[in-house]
TrEMBL record:
<dbReference type="Pfam" id="PF02910">
    <property type="entry name" value="Succ_DH_flav_C"/>
</dbReference>
<dbReference type="InterPro" id="IPR015939">
    <property type="entry name" value="Fum_Rdtase/Succ_DH_flav-like_C"/>
</dbReference>
<dbReference type="InterPro" id="IPR003953">
    <property type="entry name" value="FAD-dep_OxRdtase_2_FAD-bd"/>
</dbReference>
<feature type="domain" description="FAD-dependent oxidoreductase 2 FAD-binding">
    <location>
        <begin position="9"/>
        <end position="428"/>
    </location>
</feature>
<keyword id="KW-0175">Coiled coil</keyword>
<keyword id="KW-0285">Flavoprotein</keyword>
<keyword id="KW-0560">Oxidoreductase</keyword>
<dbReference type="InterPro" id="IPR027477">
    <property type="entry name" value="Succ_DH/fumarate_Rdtase_cat_sf"/>
</dbReference>
<protein>
    <submittedName>
        <fullName>Fumarate reductase/succinate dehydrogenase flavoprotein subunit</fullName>
    </submittedName>
</protein>
<feature type="coiled-coil region">
    <location>
        <begin position="483"/>
        <end position="520"/>
    </location>
</feature>
<dbReference type="InterPro" id="IPR037099">
    <property type="entry name" value="Fum_R/Succ_DH_flav-like_C_sf"/>
</dbReference>
<dbReference type="InterPro" id="IPR036188">
    <property type="entry name" value="FAD/NAD-bd_sf"/>
</dbReference>
<dbReference type="InterPro" id="IPR030664">
    <property type="entry name" value="SdhA/FrdA/AprA"/>
</dbReference>
<feature type="domain" description="Fumarate reductase/succinate dehydrogenase flavoprotein-like C-terminal">
    <location>
        <begin position="483"/>
        <end position="593"/>
    </location>
</feature>
<dbReference type="Pfam" id="PF00890">
    <property type="entry name" value="FAD_binding_2"/>
</dbReference>
Length: 629
């Protein structure tokens, strides 16, 4: 059977911030580049990003610089981050934001006309470049505009807008193809017609985002089914840090139909406070030892910080997300929650109504439309929601290259940069910094290739057979039921607070679900058939869920986005251990420990001894003392 076939130098899978920035770079380096995305072009998670992009530009507080940002990022990730990624990110984020502005982005301004920067949890200084609470939309608009500008150049030079960069929207990739150990292409289907499409390409950049749809309560939308994570695994690459999932502290809890939808951290950054059903501003009770000297211990000091940051410590509502999410969880469990099982987030008593509407227009609109709550006059009810996965494809920090030659990854699908917990705002900047690097890495890889890898027909046939299988079992298992069971299992047994028995039970259920996925059937034809699409996505969701639960069971400590009820507290001997997930054949996931290289001397000496002693082992501290002498 003939399959539609295209030949490119670089295929970028995903059209969010990471994918677009990677594609722009690959095209700028002269590579014929395809952008493939399963949703409509322009509809990616990046569009939903509200708060902003973190970059130490020092526009609002001139004390900010890359070293402060690097320290905040490492602290937020509880020192488990790939420090080289954190370094590159902190150093390059300002240039990437300025570059966006040069391409037409219109950021909010300070009074003296610079790009304005707002406060966010875990960032020592105001650092998030933003456009109201619609920053992601502006980022995507600008990157798309840049793609169009490049296409116009190509039209002038080659008479064809799509000569060097072409978008394939509503096209889902289901398999990566290999020639020996190297990438040779990608196989997918058009969502609308169900017909298949083959990309011949020596380099593939994964930029597919996260895995949130494996959980019931999530801020993520339908595309987040862990496709890139699974595609990488099935192609022989490793995933790291899969046990670390960020439960954003503030998702909507009511009404049920909107449960999980994000309430941006900007609400707290702009003065919003959290209270329990007794009216107590409870976060003061939950400042952990490692952050004690950095956060206000009284409401008065916390409030003063909004107008005088030099002489006061920040309020504990702005602790890193994992801390706030756990605190909310504990308050609700202790019976001090709101009627619908969350806590109260109040900005109405903190800012004038007009100011709220100006600074948080989307939040105002979201609550009014979806919950009939006017946030200028009453508090919101909020609770934790599965938001972001820190884990992903293990990549080389400088090039985004995975262990499989020709495979690159950037953005949320890659792992390492954020360690055990991501700071708000560090994703948008991550997309730009590492999207650019992955695009450049892929281009350099293609330049250095002695010969173009070839697509093997057997692999295309196998991918086609695999994709058609659910349609041939039209009376098989219902994909929606299997999906729901997976979501419920992950939420209840591998969620925000974990313990060994529950994780073991989760793995038993996932194992059974894996078998059921093999029996899932979809009625109807290949033409726009969401049941069939879900049946195909389920393979990916069960694979990544197995990684999450297995790694979570293995890590016997609590750190960042991984909290073990039966192993509370961080254990220094676990800090440098990465848990690496892989699979031989898509069957079972193997998880192995791998030691993370020690931080470079010039970077580790950016930290105080006292702070490091809270995270490092005694041996590591001895080494630090030797270096610091
Ligand atoms: P995405 O932007 O999600 O793009 C993924 C792309 O991959 C999509 O185009 C999708 O169609 C495509 N895709 C997926 N699977 C396939 C497949 N199999 N075949 C083809 N295409 C595929 N971060 C911040 O730094 N600041 C914020 O203020 C902020 N606010 C947020 C608000 C919300 C509501 C959410 C959900 C997240 C927020 N984040 C924020 C996180 C941040 O938005 C995401 O981590 C980031 O946008 C991910 O970008 P990405 O490029 O990796 O993926």
């Amino acid at each position: 059977m003939n399959i539609e076939r295209h030949e490119y130098d670089v295929v970028v899978i995903g059209a969010g911030g990471a994918g677009l920035r990677a594609a722009i770079e690959a095209r700028q380096q002269g590579k014929r580049t395809a952008i493939v995305c399963k949703s409509l072009f322009g509809k990616a998670h990046t569009v939903m990003a509200e708060g902003g992009a973190a970059a130490a530009m020092g526009n609002v507080n001139s004390d900010d610089n890359w070293m402060v940002h690097f320290r905040d990022t490492m602290r937020g990730g509880k020192f488990l981050n790939n420090w080289r990624m954190a370094e590159l990110h902190a150093k390059e984020a300002p240039d990437r934001v300025w570059e966006l502005e040069a391409w037409g982005a219109l950021f909010d301004r300070t009074k003296d006309g610079k790009i304005s920067q707002r406060n966010f949890g875990g960032h020592e200084y105001p650092r998030l470049a933003h456009v109201g609470d619609r920053t992601g939309l502006e980022m995507i608009r600008t990157l798309q505009q840049r793609v169009v500008a490049l296409q116009q150049e190509d039209h002038e030079q080659h008479g064809d807008y799509e000569a060097y960069i072409k978008v394939f929207q509503e096209c889902t990739v289901t398999r990566l193809l290999k020639d020996g150990d190297r990438i040779s292409g990608a196989f997918g289907y058009w969502r609308e017609t169900g017909s298949f499409v083959l990309f011949d390409a020596p380099a593939v950049v994964l930029a597919t985002g996260g895995i949130g749809k494996s959980y019931v309560v999530t801020s993520n939308s339908w595309e987040y089914t862990g496709d890139g994570h699974a595609l990488a695994l099935l192609a022989g690459a490793n995933l790291i840090n899969m046990e670390f999932i960020q439960f954003h502290p503030t998702g909507m809890v009511w009404p049920p139909s909107v449960r999980g939808i994000l309430v941006t951290e900007s609400v707290r950054g702009d003065g919003g406070v959290l209270r329990n059903s007794e009216g107590e501003r409870f976060m003061f009770k939950y400042i952990p030892e490692v952050f004690k000297d950095k956060y206000a211990t009284t409401e008065e000091e916390g409030d003063r910080w909004y107008t005088d940051q030099a002489n006061n410590r920040r309020p504990p509502e702005l602790l890193p997300r994992d801390e706030v999410a756990r605190a909310i969880n504990a308050e609700v469990k202790a019976g001090r929650g709101s009627p619908q099982g969350g806590v109260y987030l109040d900005v109405s008593t903190r800012l004038p109504a007009e100011e709220i509407k100006r600074r948080l227009p989307s939040m105002h609109h979201q609550f009014k439309e979806l919950a009939d709550v006017d946030i200028t006059a009453e508090p919101m009810q909020v609770g934790p929601t599965c938001h972001y996965i820190m884990g992903g494809v293990e990549v080389d920090a400088d090039t985004g290259g995975a262990s499989v030659p020709g495979l690159f990854a950037a953005g949320e699908v890659s792992g390492g940069m954020h360690g055990s917990n991501r700071l708000g705002g560090n994703s948008l900047s991550d997309l730009l910094v590492f999207g650019r690097r992955a695009g450049a890495g892929a281009a350099a890889y293609v330049d250095a290739l002695p010969a173009r890898p070839k697509v093997a027909q057997e692999q295309v046939d196998a991918a086609r057979t695999e994709a058609l299988a659910p349609l041939e079992r039209s009376s098989g298992e219902n994909p929606y039921e299997v999906h729901h069971e997976l979501q419920r299992t992950m939420n209840e047994l591998a969620g925000i607070i974990r313990k060994a028995e529950e994780l073991t039970e989760a793995l038993e259920v996932v194992e059974k679900l894996k078998e059921r996925v093999q029996l899932v059937g979809a009625g109807g034809s290949r033409i726009y058939n969401p049941g069939w699409h879900l049946a195909l996505d389920l393979r990916n969701m069960v694979l990544v869920s197995e990684c999450v639960a297995k790694a979570a069971l293995m890590r016997e400590e609590s750190r960042g986005g991984h909290t073990r009820d039966d192993h509370p507290g961080m254990r220094p001997e676990w800090r440098r251990k990465l848990l690496v997930c892989s699979t031989e054949d898509g069957g079972s996931i193997t998880v192995e420990e791998q030691e993370q290289p020690a931080m470079r001397d010039d970077l580790i000496t950016l930290f105080d001894r006292d702070e490091l002693s809270k995270y490092l082992t005694d041996d590591e501290m001895d080494e630090f003392d030797r270096i610091a002498k």
